[in-house]
Design goal:
Strand order of the largest sheet: 1-10-9-8-7-6-5-2
Largest sheet: 8 strands, parallel
Number of strands: 21
Bound molecules: glutamine, zinc ion
Structural class: alpha/beta
Number of helices: 27
Strand content: 5-15%
Helix content: 40-55%
Shape: globular
Radius of gyration: 27 Å
C-alpha cells in the first residue's frame, strides 16, 4: 500500500457568497449584535471545515480562519496592542481588535502591508512596551471546536515565531533575536496546551525561509525550533514554507521538527533539486505543495503524478503529505457560480474546492494505481490541451517576431526632452495636478449599474459620464490646477477597465479573493494573447481636452500593474505577457497622441510589489518590468510628456530601476512617510520630474495649508524647484466631493505661496 496523507494549508475565509464580508460590515455598521456576529462567524468557519472534510482532506487546517487577519490574531493573542488603544492586558476585546485593524475615533489603525509577493495585506504587529503574555490560545479553542462540532481532529495553523517577529515593527532590528526569544515561551505554551488537548500536528508557517537568511537568523531558527520541539515533544510540528524555494535547505531540513513543508510549484525546481542532491532525513515527513495555491489553472495531473513519483524516489509516499503549495486564501472558493463563462476556459480552471478535488485524484492514483483514475487524468490533460490550442492563445504567433523589434527606449535623452517640453508646455514653477480619479459618488455608481442592467442605453451612460467630466473640468479650472484630468468616472477599477477592452482577458462572476480585511477583489484572468482592439480612453480624454485650454493628462494603467493584479496564464513566462500588454497599450498611447493628448500618465502602483522574494532575482524582474513600461511609452514625440504614478512602498532600493523607466515625471507618496521618500530621490540624484504627494488621500481630513507648505519646503531643501510638481498622494476616487474640492484649493494655495517666495 502506498499510503500518503492529504492536507491543506488554509482555506478562503470569505464564504462562498462573501458572507464573511457581509457579516463583518454589518457588525461594524452596528446592524448586528456581538452575539449574532460571533454566531454567524462560527457558522462560516464551521462551513469551511465541513467543506474540506467533504472534499476528503485528512489533515484539516484549523485556526487559519480569522475575523480580519491572521497576523493581527497573533498580535492580539500575545497582547501586543499598541498603547494608543488603551489596552490594559488580558484577552483583547473585539472593539480593540477592530480598532487595531481599522482605527477608531481616538487612534489610527495599525499599518497594513502586502503579504510577501501576494495581493493579500496583513496588519503589521507593533511589538511594544507590553511584555508579551498569552492572552488567549485561539488555535486551541478552534482545535477543540472542530473536534466537538464536526469530529475533526484538525491541524492548528499559525505563523511561526521567526516570521512573526520579522514582519512586525516597533523594535530595533538589531534586537531581532532577543525579541524572538521573548515570544518563544508563548509559542511553547500554546503548543504544550495543544498537545495536552490531543492535537497530533501543528503547522508553523515560516515563509521567511524562502528569503535570504543570515547565519545569525539560521542559528536563531535552529534554537527556536529546538526549544519548541522540546516544549511539546508529543506534538508533531510541520515547519511550513511557501512562495519559493527554501534557502539553506541542508540546514533547514535538519531542524528538529517532525515535518518540513516545501513548495513544489513556486520555486519547485530548486526545491526538488535540493531534495535530490542532499536527500531528506528518514525520520521526517515531507509536506509536498503540489497543487498551485496562487493561481487558478487546473493542474496537469499526469505531470504532477510524475513529480510525486520523482519525490518518492527520495521520500517514500508513506512519509509524504500532499497539499496545495500555500494557503488557498489566494484563490476564489469554487467554480460553481461561473456558469456564464466560456466552457473551454471554465474547464481549464480550478479554484479552492476544485484544487482539493485534484489532490484526491492524485492520492487515489498513488494509492490504487493511475488506471483507477484514468478518466480524471485524461480530463485534466484534455482541458489544458484545448485551452493551449484555442485561437485565443495563438493570436500572436505570427506577429511576435515582428513586434519584438519595436523600440524600447525614447529616441531623445531626457535632458533634451526636458528643454523642449518646458518650451512646449510653459507651466509655472511647481505645477499642480492630481493623480487621475475624482470621487466616485453614489450617483456615478448608480449610473453605471443602470447601464449594466440595461436600464440605460450606452448613449445615456456616455452622456452622464460627459456631464461628470464637464463639471470637474470646470471645478479644476476654478481651483486653479495647472494640469487637469478627466476624472476616470467611466472606470470601476483601474485594471478591470482595460481588461474588459483588451483581447485575452476573462472575468469571473464570483471569483472573489480577500485583499485586506473585508475588502475583496475579483482579479481578471489573462487567459489568452493580449491584444489591442480599439481605443479605450481616447473619447473621454479628448472630450475633456476640448473643454479647456489647460493641458489634460491622459490616463492609463501600466503593463506591470495590469499583470500583477490579474491571474495570469502560466504557459508563458510572465515577462512575455507583460510584453504583450505593453504592445497593446502602446497602441493606446498612439491613439491618444493622435487625438491631441500629449501629456500621458501610465500608472504603475504595483511595480514594486511584483519584486521576487529572493533578492538575487530582483534585477531580472526589474529589467523586464522596466522594458514593458518603456515599450508602452517610448513611441511618443519628444515633446509628449510621459508621467507615471506609484503609490506607497519603499523606493530607495529600486530607484535606479525607476529612473530607467525614463518617465518625464513620476508622482509618489510623501505625506504618510513624512517626506522620507524625497530624501531617497535626492540622495540618488534622480534627474527627472517628481510629483510630491503633499497630502494623504486615505483620510477624509482636509489638511491645512501650513502642513503642505512645510512638505513642499522640505522637498525644496534637497531637490531643485524646477523638478517638482505638486499633487495629492494618490487618486481621489474614494473621497467625497466637498472635502476633495476643499483640499485641492488649499493645495493650490500652498503651491502658489511657495512659488511666489521662490520667484522673489
Ligand atoms: N490614476 C489612478 C487613480 O487616480 C491611480 C490609482 C492608484 O495609484 N492606485 O485612481
Ligand atoms: Zn496611487
Amino acid at each position: 500500500m502506498n499510503e500518503l496523507t492529504v492536507s491543506s494549508l488554509g482555506f478562503p475565509r470569505i464564504g462562498e457568497n462573501r458572507e464573511w464580508k457581509k457579516t463583518l460590515e454589518a457588525f461594524w455598521a452596528g446592524q448586528i449584535s456581538e452575539d449574532t456576529f460571533i454566531r454567524e462567524m462560527t457558522e462560516i468557519r464551521l462551513g469551511a471545515l465541513r467543506r474540506q472534510k467533504e472534499k476528503g482532506v485528512e489533515l484539516i487546517p484549523v485556526g487559519d480562519f480569522t475575523f480580519y487577519d491572521h497576523m493581527l490574531d497573533l498580535a492580539a493573542m500575545f497582547g501586543q496592542v499598541p498603547e494608543r488603544y488603551g489596552y490594559a492586558g488580558g484577552k483583547v476585546s473585539l472593539a480593540t481588535y477592530f480598532a487595531m485593524a481599522r482605527g477608531n475615533s481616538a487612534a489610527p489603525a495599525c499599518e497594513m502591508t502586502k503579504w510577501f509577493n501576494t495581493n493579500y495585506h496583513y496588519i503589521v504587529p507593533e511589538i511594544g512596551a507590553f511584555v508579551p503574555a498569552l492572552a488567549e490560545n485561539r488555535p486551541l479553542e478552534l482545535y477543540l471546536e472542530a473536534k466537538r462540532e464536526l469530529g475533526i481532529d484538525g491541524k492548528p495553523v499559525l505563523i511561526g515565531p521567526c516570521t512573526f517577529v520579522k514582519l512586525s515593527k516597533g523594535y530595533d532590528p538589531a534586537n531581532y533575536a532577543a525579541i524572538v526569544e521573548r515570544f518563544l515561551p508563548l509559542y511553547g505554551q500554546m503548543l504544550a496546551e495543544l498537545q495536552q488537548a490531543g492535537a497530533r500536528w501543528v503547522q508553523l508557517d515560516e515563509p521567511l525561509l524562502v528569503a535570504t537568511l543570515s547565519d545569525g537568523e539560521m542559528k536563531l531558527l535552529t534554537h527556536a525550533y529546538e526549544y519548541l520541539a522540546n516544549t511539546a515533544p508529543g506534538l508533531s510540528i510541520m515547519l511550513q514554507t511557501y512562495f519559493d524555494a527554501v534557502e539553506r535547505y541542508e540546514e533547514v531540513s535538519k531542524l528538529p521538527v517532525a515535518g518540513i513543508g516545501l513548495d513544489f510549484v513556486h520555486g519547485g525546481k530548486a526545491n526538488l533539486e535540493n531534495l535530490q542532491r542532499h536527500g531528506f532525513p528518514h525520520d521526517k515527513v515531507l509536506g509536498v505543495g503540489i497543487i498551485d495555491g496562487r493561481n487558478i489553472w487546473r493542474a496537469n495531473l499526469s505531470a504532477k503524478l510524475q513529480l510525486l513519483q520523482a519525490i518518492a524516489a527520495i521520500v517514500p509516499f508513506k512519509r509524504q503529505i500532499i497539499q496545495p503549495s500555500c494557503s488557498l486564501l489566494h484563490v476564489p472558493i469554487s467554480l460553481r457560480k461561473e456558469a456564464n463563462m466560456d466552457g473551454g476556459l471554465r474547464n481549464a480552471l480550478s479554484f479552492a474546492e476544485e484544487k482539493l478535488d485534484e489532490l484526491q485524484v492524485l492520492a487515489a492514483a498513488i494509492r490504487n494505481g493511475a488506471d483507477t483514475v484514468a478518466a480524471s487524468l485524461r480530463a485534466s490533460a484534455e482541458a489544458l490541451n484545448k485551452l493551449a490550442h484555442s485561437p485565443a492563445r495563438n493570436q500572436l504567433a505570427k506577429d511576435a517576431p515582428k513586434a519584438r523589434n519595436v523600440p524600447n527606449h525614447r529616441g531623445t535623452p531626457y535632458e533634451v526632452r526636458q528643454k523642449l517640453q518646458r518650451q512646449k508646455w510653459s507651466l509655472p514653477l511647481l505645477p499642480t495636478t492630481t493623480i487621475g480619479s475624482f470621487p466616485q459618488t453614489p450617483e456615478v455608481r448608480k449610473a453605471r449599474n443602470l447601464w449594466r442592467k440595461g436600464e440605460w442605453s450606452k448613449e445615456q451612460y456616455d452622456q452622464f459620464i460627459r456631464e461628470q467630466i464637464k463639471e470637474w473640468i470646470a471645478l479644476q479650472e476654478e481651483i486653479g490646477l495647472d494640469v487637469l484630468v478627466h476624472g476616470e468616472f467611466e472606470r470601476t477599477d483601474m485594471v478591470e477597465y482595460f481588461g474588459e477592452k483588451l483581447a485575452g482577458f476573462a472575468f469571473t462572476q464570483n471569483g472573489w479573493v480577500q485583499s485586506y480585511g473585508s475588502r475583496c477583489v475579483k482579479p481578471p484572468i489573462i487567459y489568452g494573447d493580449v491584444k489591442f482592439a480599439a481605443p479605450m480612453t481616447v473619447a473621454e480624454s479628448a472630450y475633456a481636452q476640448q473643454l479647456t485650454a489647460k493641458p489634460v493628462k491622459g490616463m492609463l494603467t501600466g503593463p506591470v500593474t495590469i499583470l500583477n493584479w490579474s491571474f495570469v496564464r502560466d504557459d508563458l513566462p510572465r515577462k512575455e505577457v507583460a510584453w504583450q500588454i505593453a504592445l497593446a497599450l502602446r497602441n493606446e498611447i498612439k491613439a491618444l497622441e493622435d487625438a491631441g493628448i500629449e501629456m500621458i500618465q501610465v500608472d504603475e502602483p504595483a511595480l514594486r510589489e511584483g519584486l521576487p522574494l529572493k533578492r538575487a532575482d530582483w534585477d531580472q524582474y526589474l529589467a523586464w518590468a522596466g522594458e514593458a513600461f518603456r515599450v508602452t511609452t517610448s513611441s511618443v514625440k519628444e515633446t509628449t510628456q510621459i508621467h507615471t504614478h506609484m503609490c506607497y512602498g519603499e523606493f530607495h532600493d529600486i530607484i535606479e530601476a525607476i529612473s530607467s523607466l525614463d518617465a518625464d515625471v513620476i508622482s509618489i507618496e510623501t505625506s504618510r512617510s513624512h517626506g522620507e521618500l524625497i530624501s531617497s530621490f535626492a540622495a540618488n540624484t534622480y534627474d527627472k520630474g517628481i510629483g510630491l504627494g503633499v497630502y494623504d488621500i486615505h483620510s477624509p481630513r482636509v489638511p491645512d495649508k501650513e502642513e503642505m507648505v512645510h512638505m513642499i519646503e522640505r522637498a525644496l531643501s534637497v531637490l531643485p524647484s524646477h523638478k517638482l510638481w505638486i499633487n495629492p498622494d494618490c487618486g481621489l476616487k474614494t473621497r467625497g466631493k466637498t472635502e476633495t474640492v476643499a483640499a485641492l484649493n488649499i493645495m493650490v494655495q500652498a503651491a502658489t505661496e511657495v512659488r511666489a517666495r521662490l520667484q522673489k
